[in-house]
Every structure is written in C-alpha cells, then in structure tokens.
Amino acid sequence: MKRQNGLLKIALVALIAGLIGGGGAYYGISYFQNNDIINQATAIPSGSNNGGTAKVSNVKVNVQNQSEKAFQSVKDSVVSVINLKRDSSSENPFASLFGGSSSPSKKGTLEANSEGSGVIYKTSGNAAYIVTNNHVVAGSSALEVIMSNGKRAEAQLVGRDTMTDLAVLKINSSMVNKIATFGNSDNIKVGETALAIGSPLGSSYASSLTQGIISAKHREVQVPSNGSSAGNIANVIQTDAAINPGNSGGPLINLAGQVVGINSMKLASDSEGTSVEGMGFAIPSNEVTKIINQLVKNGKVVRPVLGIEYVDLTNIPSKDQSKVLKLPSSVHTGAVVMKVVQGSAAANAGLKQYDVITSLAGKKITSQAQIRDVLLAQKIGSTIPVTYYENGHVKTAQIKLTKQSSNVNFK
C-alpha cells in the first residue's frame, strides 16, 4: 500500500509537471501566432492619401464674458504715444560758422525716443483729446500717436503736469471713431476685476490686455525722481494687472468699460533689491479729470499752496513724538511741518516748524498725501481752517491760500 501511494505521488507530480510544461508550450505558441496577427494589422497601408484631409467644425462656442465686452468697448480709444526726438548727430557741426543755426530744436532727424500709451477721452469739433503720462511725453521734440487700427497721426502737447504725472495731447478727430468714458474711482472696491490696456514694450504689442484685481484704493507711493517732482507722494490705485514699460498712460478700466485710472508706474523691487510681482499703480480717474480739465483750460495746473514741507507723523519715532513734538498720547496721525516758507500762507497763519497738522478745511488728516488732495479741491485766494498741535497744545487758525511756488516740494 505504501508503495502504491508512493507511485501515485510520483504520477501526480509527473502529471502536474506535464501540464505546466504543456501550458508553457501552449502559451508560447499562442504568443507567436498573435504577434504575427498584430504585425499584419498595423502594417502601413498603401494607396492614395486623399482620405487624410481635414476640415474645421462649424460648431461655434460662445465664450464672450464681461471682460471681453469691456475690452471691446474701450480698445479703439487706446493709442500708442511716440516720443520723437531730434538726432543731433545728423546736424552739420559747422553750420553756425556760416550763419546757420546748430539748434537741435529745428534741425536733425526725428527718431523715436520712447513709447507709451494714451486714451482718447473727448472729441470737440475737429479736435480729439488724449490723456497720457507726463513722463511719456517729457523731453520730446515732436509727438505722434498710432491708432488702434495702425494709422498714425501727429499730436500736439496741450499741457502737462509733473506733480501728478499727467499730460494732455490733441490730434485731428478725423480718424477717431471711439472715445472712452471716465468712471468714478471712489466707487471701485478692493477685489473687483481690473483690466489694463496699452502697448507694453512699445507699439508692436499695441492693444494688449491684462487682467487683475483692485489691490488697494488709496496707496501712497513715492513718485520716482525726475528732477522737479522729487519727494512728491502720489495717492494711487494699486492693481496686480500686469503693467509693463509702454503701458504708461494707458487706461485701467472696470468691467463696465469705464476708465477708473491712468496707469503710471509699477514696483519691480523694494529698496533692498528684492524682486516683486503684481504691484502696478494707476492715477485715480477722479484726480485725472480735475487735472486734465485744468491742462485743457490753462495749459498747466495752478495750485493753491500752504508754503510748507512736511512728513507723515507715522514716520516719526514714538519717542520723538513725545519728547520733541510733545504730542499727547491720543494723537496718532497728522502731518509734521518740517519747514515753513517765509511770507507763505502757512507762515502768515502762524504755523511753525514741528507743528503737527491734524485737520485741514474740515477734513481729518490721517496721512500726508491728504493735504495735497485737500488743496487740489480749493481755489486760490480762498480761506480754510486748520487745526494743529504746537508744543503739545491744540490750536486753530485760518489760512488764506496762495499760488504754488516754482518749487513743487513746498505744498
């Protein structure tokens, strides 16, 4: 019995081994057979290629959204502004020796010096008016604009203002078929969509559109020094819509297609050289309209001034606020008078160095930029109340406003 069991085990093992070996042989044969079938099925077909032609589907997808509608309503009013300068190297250096003039203002070839953007905001008769940045047109010998359709037109400078970095140009209205409208910049909200239109890196990229949001409504930034406006603080709209060189002077619009700001500058790095992204700034439309109306009327902006230099109280260390300014602990905001021009409106009203202005024309002063905003709303010759602290004592006075001096550092 044991022997039979042993033979049975051997037989079973042999049978299993046979099945395994047979299975392996079976699957091996199947694999080669199937491979032959695959090779035949995927062989490159011969014959004509006429069946490989394609066509575009006539199915239309409507992806229009509010951003596109806003862009379409404004884009034809946006232009590229070309700053042309005479090339003095093409002049005859000996012209003055023979009674000629070597002045670069009338001789030399006009060449593109820089490019920016602008927006047509009004037509009147055969004239059309464009707002742009002062730094776009500064130093030009002549100006030219390129319309959204590529046509060129000669432009004339109506007026410019270094303090707000705004300028107005005039062109013939014959080529204008669209003008932009200004919205109320006081109504914008942080977080709402903002669109920037312009010519980044020049007219080759004209009518470029970027989208972002309103990052801040009232941001105080130092205006880059360009000689006369050094030290000026601008109250601007901050946006993360991409603003690049060439976008300057173009519009920042809302989703209704209204211009709520004029793009002016961007912050690329901080004082320590750290690179930053998405920090562009635009001049609010409410300020833009006030300035350009004066430029159209007078060719310049005539401002009432106090006749002082000042800094924000928050820039003064707390120990100096207490020991030097002698302010009570309840006072946290205001503008510190650093210098008073002799014979100025502020001097005549009794203001002195280290006085702290906390209210002007009935408006509380919480930052130094507010003084400029208050003054822009006043007329020369008007009298406004001022509240200030002198040696820790609160005082009030009446200031009769005078014209701006040639030195714009004094406000």
Automatic annotation (TrEMBL):
Membrane-spanning ranges: 7-29
Family matches, as InterPro entries: Chloro_Bact_Ser_Proteases, PDZ, PDZ_sf, Peptidase_S1_PA, Peptidase_S1_PA_chymotrypsin, Peptidase_S1C
Keywords annotated in UniProt: Hydrolase, Membrane, Protease, Serine protease, Transmembrane, Transmembrane helix
PDZ domain sequence ranges: 304-392
Gene Ontology terms: biological process: proteolysis
SMART domains: PDZ
Domain of life where this protein originates: Bacteria
GO molecular-function terms, A-Z: serine-type endopeptidase activity
Statement: the UniProt record of this protein carries the keyword Oxidoreductase: no
PANTHER family (UniProt xref): PEPTIDASE S12, PROTEASE DO-LIKE 8, CHLOROPLASTIC
Family according to the record: Belongs to the peptidase S1C family.
Protein name as it appears in the record: Serine protease
Record organism: Philodulcilactobacillus myokoensis
Taxonomy of the source species: Bacteria, Bacillati, Bacillota, Bacilli, Lactobacillales
